Amino acid sequence: MLKRKISNQIRQWINTKKRKCLIIQGARQVGKTYVVENYAHDNYEELIEINFKQTPSASEIFSGDLTVDNMVMAMRFRFPDKNITPQKTLIFLDEIQE
Questions:
Q1: The whole model's pTM is what?
Q2: Contact 52/93 with Cβ under 8 angstroms?
């Protein structure tokens, strides 16, 4: 049931012309991360996963002047092995409540 609900949310988000961020809410430990990672694997060339519980210091990416260019530059610095390309990279912020 949950997998289908999340998959439907993602599909609706994809079909939105002017999409911004997608927020997936739900109970903990039920597979939300798994679904997002599988979706990214199937539909994007690159996945950048920032888990704020595992890496609290990653919040520094989102401090200061919050322009898209500044945040992308901070991600490129923090994840030099990742190729951040518009429309080809999914940026997944997990455990954001932390």
A1: 0.79
A2: yes
